Amino acid sequence: MKKTPLNQVHRELGARMVDFGGWDMPVQYSGVIEEHLAVRQAAGLFDVSHMGEIEVTGADALAFIQHLTINDAVKLVDGQIQYSAFCYPEGGVVDDVTLYRFNESHFLFCVNASNTDKDFAWMQQVLAESAMNDVTLNNRSSEFAQLALQGPKSEEILAALTNVVLADIVYYHFCEGVVADVKMIISRTGYTGEEGFELYLPATAAVKVWQQLLVAGVPHGLLPIGLGARDTLRLEKGYALYGHELSENISPLEAGLAWITKLDKPDFVGKAALLAQKNHGIPRRRVGLVMQERGIPREGYPVFDGDREVGVVTSGTMSPTLKVGIALALVEPAAAGVDSELQVAIRNRRMSAKVVRTPFVK
Amino acid sequence: MEFPEELKYTEEHEWVLVEDELAVIGITDFAQDALGDVVFVELPEVGTVLEAGKAFGVVESVKAVSDIYAPISGTVEEINDDLVEAPEIINTSPYEDGWMIKIRMADVSDADALMDAEAYQALIEEES
User: Fold this and answer.
1) Topology at the third CATH level for domain A284-362
2) Sign of dihedral through CA atoms A288, A292, A296, A299?
3) Cβ–Cβ of B37/A27 closer than 8 Å?
4) How do residues A287-345 score in pLDDT, each as one tens digit?
5) B40, A296: Cβ pair inside 8 Å?
6) Nearest CB partner across the interface for B62, out of A16, A33, A294
7) ipTM rounded to 2 decimals
8) For the whole model, what pTM was predicted?
């Protein structure tokens, strides 16, 4: 299995480790619920070094990115970030990504850990098939470690380790600066829905920066956070996870990502299929479900509207904040209206659930 | 990790406490630790007939659903209602407040065939 630079540190902290897409990663330290609540109420530190970083440079970089992605990158200014995706010509999703603009000829994609190699190969293929010459792709994933510091106390904690004026970094923007004597990218982004930062730093400095963040943060209630809580946190906010709400068989329009799908952009890979889907009626819709009876909806459980099977749960859990079962599901449009009363098949019972707007937790 | 001497154990990590013709059943310290935070328990209704080796309920952690297996045959006499509101009791007190069901044993000698604390502890150490 692949290991991040912090593997030994996690083990020394007593983490329970799990194979996550070929990476040996911590799923929990003190417990999923305690870690989840720490992020909502104080702060949490995540090792997300398994994520991929792919650089795009050259005079044609922006034109290539416009062709490759579904969102409109032309609007980005230097230091700005955009949530986006790569699609297949048929409209399914290759990966969801965040795009960082350094300048008009220098960009960086942050991609899902399980898709890094696939994404890089895809980008190379799209580039080869395009007419663009001045584009260089560089998979820099092994050079970077990535840490996420998330929670209401995260800015206070990070401020203790840097002279960068963090208040100047607005949401979905980044700067390059020194933290704990290490030069890194400081990005005001995250996957938890709380105030927070994602730090991209040299892999060789990961252990040192992690330790210093823990020391600075523990007095504020900072805990190390594993992948278990990372999943419950994003689910409470209704954020998509590739392989669940997004896949090669699920389009961004079905997944509730019409807001990043810019169908009036000049041609991009997947545009024709997505336009056709929009014009013919999007066949399935992502919804949020809250259980009305005691039971936990799980990925793969069928969703019913009376006798009719109308869809399937794509992610589900017991919400640590709300203490009720919540789920994201893909259902036929007729069943997708907010307040619709549906049923989730949990083992041999049909348990009632209600369609709600996400986020489940504000 | 605890292995109370007075209990009997199964390979599926359930424990049994014999109280005359009744058997109290729960899951072990090892099981609750492996599960992580317990967030939901599904138990059979009073009067349900259980067959040794068959699943009689479910215990759910944040991430996973696990079946609970009947260590011995019998009829459910009582279930622990506290676990409905506070399933996490299974984590904090797996052998006492976290008891799940009490059954009237089909045969009072059935529990004798189960593992004692020493054998169960040896099994755990082998698995680790």
Assistant:
1) Elongation Factor Tu (Ef-tu); domain 3 (2.40.30)
2) negative
3) no
4) 999 999 999 999 999 999 999 999 999 999 999 999 999 999 999 999 999 999 999 99
5) yes
6) A33
7) 0.90
8) 0.95
